[in-house]
């Protein structure tokens, strides 16, 4: 490690250091996490480990955060790993390996029983016990709602009142699935919805439910996530979004939707990797909601 670098951990309380990480991720991945400051702030459970040069520039980072899951009806205390990056002029010096080891050691000391990450370089993490698990989305015909339902209202995160509605829905949400789903992850839901302009957020007022979705042509739609105290039936949801939809694709397990879709392997830019969970516990088809991507 170059002697001029300073190792810092847990530095999100320092706005200058947080912005330095935001600059690193913007330069390497083209994403600006500083928008979190307008959406309620970063995840308070985050534990970043980073190297900073004498000018205060973040040159390498790897972070952990608390990401509890429901897996087959059981709450699993898992750590998520994200924000792994090294500036090109500091690569090949072992910085990333050192940060990974420090982060994984911290998670072990904290008592996390499992680890989860998304990556396009799975071979980098396999030596640390991570394995790739397949993901499946679910598709089929739209079920009938049965009764007439009121039309959902679109929400805009740039409007303070609408942002508050989504935040409250996420605070008190029921996990979307008993098979596999996050218990909480408000910050990434908001950031992902902010980044992807194609995602629509709609409020089913009588259900106090926020639906993250995308239309696909005139007669199809994708349901990406739901934030509600009790998950409404899929037929009710789709009818609220538009009576003209005939086909639906759901990007999380459908056990709480009152509907059986056909599971189809999902191929994304990144693979989901886990450690600390037995393969048998992940045998049923599932997918991590795109709004929980990290």
Task: Provide the descriptors you would attach to this structure in a database record.
alpha+beta, about 290 residues, 5 helices, globular, single chain, seven-stranded mixed beta sheet
Describe this structure in words.
By secondary structure, the chain is of the alpha+beta class. Helix content is 21%, strand content 30%. The chain has a seven-stranded mixed sheet. A seven-stranded mixed sheet has the order 10-12-13-14-15-9-16, sandwiched between helices. A three-stranded antiparallel sheet has the order 5-4-11, with no helix packed on it. A hairpin with a 3-residue loop joins strand 13 and strand 14 (220-227).
Strand order of the largest sheet: 1-2-3-6-7-17-8
Main beta sheet: 7 strands, mixed
Helix content: 10-25%
Q: Mean pLDDT across all residues, rounded?
A: 94
What is the C-alpha radius of gyration, as a whole number of Å? Answer: 20 Å
Unreliable parts: none
**Shape verdict:** globular
Beta fraction? 25-35%
According to DSSP, the number of beta strands is 17
In DSSP terms, counting alpha (H) and pi (I) runs of 4 or more, how many helices? Answer: 5
Q: N- to C-terminal separation?
A: 28 Å
Helix/strand order, N-terminal first: EHEEEEEHEEEEHEHEEEHEEE
Judged by helices, strands and strand pairing, the structural class is alpha+beta
